[in-house]
Amino acid sequence: MGGMEPIDADSLGRQIRFIMEAGRLTAVLRQNTVTGGSRRENSAEHSWHIALMALVLGPLAPPGTDICRVMSMLLLHDLVEIDAGDLFLYAPEADQRRQDAAEQTAAERLFGLLPAGQESSVRALWAEFCERETAEARFARAMDRLQPILLNHAAGGGTWRTHGVTADQVLGKVRLIADGSPALGSYARGLVEDAVRQGFLTGNLPAGPRPATGA
Fold first, then answer.
1. Does domain 11-198 have CATH number 1.20.1290.10?
2. Contact 50, 74 (CB under 8 A)
3. Domain-wise residue ranges, the chain
4. Looking at the DSSP assignment, which residues form a beta bridge with residue 40?
């Protein structure tokens, strides 16, 4: 008669430690506010929200995209912020480079909590998201970039107003969205155009045809 696999106490202990450590992501605050604007969003909420977006918007991904893999990347992608903290999306390049280094160090510690076989597979998913070379990673990054645009548009400018973000800056993120899903890139550009018309995003939109997709 079949039954449950025997429990590997050491592996289970490492998995539980990782799970408990991951819960600390709820304490990492982002710049965006939650839907409705009552308070700042935390990184765990952001990760859940964009994983849900991938599930719902999956039909707009390129044919053959593995949406379960996309969702796995999105649930993992910001865990490194437990150690590295969140950096504003439009921070200067020097700050971005320091953040990248801090996140690499955080990945070593956090994913190293898992049993060896699981550590390598989970870390590979995180690295795939960062490198953005697969259809799944590009669609995952599109979700990550689309969600703040949705929140800021719904908030009448939100952090765009707070930090003086311009339309050109946001359009740079729209190009990443279009690289993962042309349809969603077009939708995001429409939100930016509407934000400029309503006056809660500064700057002018470039004239002529929409920018080509790609990073």
1. no
2. yes
3. 11-198
4. 33
pLDDT category at 206 given cuts 50, 70, 90 is low
Q: What is the pTM of this model?
A: 0.91
Kindly tell me if the per-residue pLDDT of 192 is higher than 60.
yes
Task: Give which of 159, 196, 199, 198 is closest to 207, Cα–Cα.
Answer: 196
Q: Half-sphere exposure of residue 63, counting CA atoms within 13 Å on the CB side?
A: 0
Residue 4: pLDDT over 80: no
Q: How many residues does the chain have?
A: 215
Pick from 46, 64, 214: nearest CA to 146: 46
> Any bridge partners for residue 202, and if so which?
166
Q: What CA–CA distance (Å, rounded) separates 142 from 161?
A: 22
The C-alpha atoms of residue 76 and residue 54 are separated, in whole angstroms, by: 14
pLDDT reported for residue 2: 56
